[in-house]
Predict the structure.
Amino acid sequence: MTLRNPIVFIGSIAVVFAILFLWWLASVTGTVSRAFVPNPFDAWAALVRGFSRGDLLPQTIGTVGRMLQGWLLASLIGVVLGAAIGLSRTARDYLQPTLEFLRPLPASAIIPVAIALMGLSPGMALTVVAFGSLWPTLLGTIHGFAAVEPRLKEVARCLQMSGPAFAWKIGLPNAMPDILAGMRLSMTVALILAIICEMLASQAGLGTAILLAARAFQSSELFAGIALLGAIGLVSNLALRAVEIRALAWQNSH
Amino acid sequence: MRLAKAAALPLLLIVGAELWFRGPGAGSESLAAPSAAFAAIVEALGDGTLVTATRQTLTAALGGLAIGASAGLVLGFLIGLSKTAIALSTPSVELFRPIPSVALIPLAMLVFGFGYGFEMSIVAFATFWPCLILAQAAASQIEPRLMEVSRVIGLSSTQRLFKIVLPAAMPRIFVALRLAAGFALVVAVTVEIAANPQGLGYMLMIAQQSLRPELMLGSLIWIGLIGWGVNAGLNALQGRLFRHQQVAGGKP
């Protein structure tokens, strides 16, 4: 849509720079205290310095790794478990009400329980990230498998398809949009929980880095960390959206 | 029958946990029996700590929601009225929206110190974006025939806004508000767990740190009940307010 009109496209980029300019203006005129909000150039310099000195890269890898590991684990469990629950009417009757009750529970609320059971360990962080990001994928998968068009079920019965064949050939393609949408939401949750766990358990990562930067009143380092976390969120979201478009292209073709 | 099936799993878990913690698991320092958790919650309700904590969490969630949602809804609605405005703002929104709200915890702590301002600012940031996006969609996806009608009967743009655009967008805006309210509660509890020394999240953390697993599990269940209650209440409200209108993707 942005490519429709080149002037509008250039204008939209100008808006981004206008926002950055306002940030710069606020910091140099002293509208907001330098202790809180740094000059954007200082934040950029802190970002470059952090990477060249070599402590930002391992921290970024730590956070991204924690997020991805937990998310992959959650996706795997969510899809397999979700397919099993979604395909069986009995399982849905017994499990869905409990799952619906757990859905609005803040994922971070299980952190104290995880700390009580596992201590402030990397395993605790991974468990929390995986458990918390499980829900969107799990519930999306259940919905996708449960909402198969009745006529397709009839066709499968006529073809005398076996249960696994039905799940693979009809259930999975049908559930794909819900699964992928769930996985994208799960990724967002995974990043948030990875940051929180780092802050609480002092695991090496960007969450700890920005907390320490704030305590030391190093606002440039703080903003560099926030920007980096935003970039991680942006890139992971864009990547999953690209996968979604590619994997679901067949659905739009007819 | 449906109710019996729905209750089967939770009951089984509760009875199983109760038996375990009375028998082989007694003396556990990290978890406790459901009956002990229930007793701890009743006690906390009695001495007022739970009520205070709940009030603090709800105040922070509601205050943050009021700021974030009103800013997001108004701005999103205004942007959504013009195709050019949507195109102009999209890159900025896509660039700043993915910043995880919890990444702002250290910054907000620095600016506001502990307390409501800190928590509300994070909640406001977190609820701003979904409201902005959904209000924009609500304003831009108004049935074109309604706009044609308003042109034919010669409404001024103010009249059009209040008589056609706002009522038509209302159901979607309510959906945005409902989703944001859910987020607000989650974010408020998260901020309390991570840093802010007040409310239910902090109560949960302190119960764990002072080795009172029964209070920890009790407050966990309490938080779950509140989240579920807010969600169910808003769903019911939506069904009542917009019974005559079908909202795509907004079915409770």
In short: The radius of gyration of chain B is 23 Å. Chain B touches chain A through 57 residues (CB under 8 Å). The mean pLDDT of chain B is 87. Chain B has one domain: 44-241.
